TrEMBL record:
InterPro entries: YibE_F. Keywords: Membrane, Transmembrane, Transmembrane helix. It holds the Pfam family YibE_F. This is YibE/F family protein.
Amino acid sequence: MTTTQQPPYPPTGPPHGHGQGSGDHQGSGSGHDHGTGGDDGHGSGGDGGHGPGGDGGHGSGAGGGHGHSHSHGPAAPVSRHLRKVIAAILIPFTVAVVVGMVVLWPGGAPSHKRTGVGFDRQTQQATVTKVVSVSCASVNASGGGSTGDTSTAEGSSAAQEAAGTCKKATVTVSTGKDKGRTFTEIVQPDQSRQLHQGEKVVVAYEPSAPKDLQYSVTDVNRKFPMALLAGIFALAVVVVGRLRGVMALVALAISFMILNFFILPAILHGSNPLIVAVVGSSAIMLIALYMCHGLSARTSVAVLGTLMSLVLIGVLGSVFIGWAALTGNTDDNTGLIHGLYPSIDMSGLLLAGVIIGSLGVLDDVTVTQTSAVWELHEANPSMGWRGLYRAGIRIGRDHIASVVNTLVLAYAGAALPLLLLFSIAQSSVGAVANSELVAEEIVRTLVGSIGLVASVPVTTALAALVVSADRPGPEAVPSGAAGTAGTAGAGSATAATSAPSAKPGAARGGKGRRRKH
């Protein structure tokens, strides 16, 4: 068999083959070449070959086979039909989210008269300018000393205070209308927070109290270490994630804005916490996913999987919070909220917290599963949706084990002081789980975990159906999609697409993309 020498660079014209020789060519749109030629780029004519028996017949030809490169860059766009189907679902949903935010927009948190309790009090910044050691007996206001009964915790503490050395701190207010005003603060020896000279502190102001008692130290000013830690976090995200990291930080900032300017004020204005949480978390989901991962069918499938899992979490949370008679009013903070705003549905607030708390982990799971299915399809385009689902779900099982354990430990870590109290009281496991404080965390953890577990098969199935349904048939290959081959080593690209065992075609130069292996 004679062959023709190919030029060192592919011609600029459309792919074609020429030659006269022995060979079989079935010229279908998908470009299956059958003949004596091998993978070295020489054989029967490609699509559009000229000579006896052109496309659709048996002809002769020693023309060069022509190939094109496969890249692992951005996901290939899906067909117009599938884009229409995805848009028909997501566009009305997006419009509904925007309309919901407009209707529920609160316009700022409602004002109220401060109670001076907990976080609901006026605060200013101050500096500890002087600290001296004094006898506790000389500064304690009780003047009665110890009660003599040291068997109780109160009596033992009083005895230690009377015999110990206290600290007398002079504090100067540095902000507000009383800037420059000083007051003294007595620090007992058994207090967990000891004041030091030069320390920045936060002081509470109570205008109705006597002048000498209007200010008191409530906390330390930790803005600098917190800001430094946030800066280190942002730097690490940008260094590792580069542009994706920058977009993730922007999406995080927008999420906090939605939380602070929409979700919290809307709940304080009396809107249904569940509806507000669903609308707000949906807006966060759309912005975060599309901003971080791009506007593509892959991201849209992740959005659909996240949305379906959030619906399941909302339904399960609503059922079990009502069934378990959880009020959501279990500590001082929730009690203060209920006292200031009696119209707030505290059980609905609990459910809203479950939904928002699960959203971040859901994003991680759905995006990972969607990307895994897409990459499996890119590696083996002939794999059907069942094969894609089975391969993707194997990846998802590993993800489930780690994510559920992370969620449970996160909630357990937050409730560790409470669990320690139950351990000190030597309460049984049943009694601990039955208490409303712990039952809230159990429902929160299990409902969120069920949603996470369900998101894996749901998102994997959606992604597998989309990519397998979008697999182009023979008539779908565009005439200009295939590039021409170079010298030896350039095989038929369309044959490589239809038959995974074929060797890859040569990549076209100048595109900066890798060939598919």
